[in-house]
Structure formats: C-alpha cells, structure tokens
Amino acid sequence: MNARLTLFGNRTANKVINSLASTGGAVSATGLPVATQELVKIRASQINGCGFCLDMHSKEAAAAGEDTTRLHLVAAWREATVFTDAERAALELTEQGTRIADASGGVTDEAWADAAKHYDEEQLIGLVSLIATINAFNRLNVMTQQPAGSYRVGQFS
Fold this sequence. Notes:
single chain
C-alpha cells in the first residue's frame, strides 16, 4: 500500500500532527492510567480500520508491559474477563464516542454515568479528549492510506 500523501516530513502536516499530539501530555496529566489510554487508542483504531494506529499503539502498549492476551482481546472486550470495570467503562465510552454518527443522541447517559463512576472530572476530560484525538488521527491516516507494519516503538517520541 502506498500512502496518498506523505504526512511525515510535510511542513503543514507536521504542524497538524504536532498540534494533535500535544493533547497527549494534557491527557497524561489527568492521571488517566496509561494502560487505559492505550486500550482506548487501540479500540477506536479497530473500529475506524486504522492499521497505522493499531500498529503503533499495540506495539507501544506491549513495550510498556501490557499483557498480550489483553491486547488480543480488545476487540472482544465485552466477552473477555481480563479488563477491569473501569477499563470496560472507558471502552464503552470509546465505542459510543467513535460511532457517534451511528446513534441518535451520541453517547448514552448510561455509558457516561458508568464512566463517571470510575473516573473523576479531570480523567473524564482526558478520556473524552483522548477519544476525540485518536479519532482525528485515525481519520488522517485512513484517508491518506498510511501503511501499517513498520512502526518502531518510540518512533515519534
């Protein structure tokens, strides 16, 4: 697969990507667990079919010590026993926030209330911001057909 546009190395694309990436520091400062952040990025990327982000975030999660069983079961999190209630709430919010156009009214009150049971206001802001940001990255990569498979851990650090 060849990319439609070269995002890496293009001055304008770098400005956009750096702006989006800067949200990562703000999200991390909320205390949202790193494992949860990676699970959210992986789940949104699965839904959106973003191979580039799946490659990146599954490798980053594994390098950070995430269990491979959990990584393999993200797509089937509802049936899996390896996720905490808090992670399940984050994954549900991720799915509903990613599929926002598919549901009238967007995220349900139930999904929001469940997430609010597990995360404080700062973490919820971080979680919502993370979901929005990974969806933006997914769309950039899918529209421009960025190839997956060659990401190296820490490549963009």
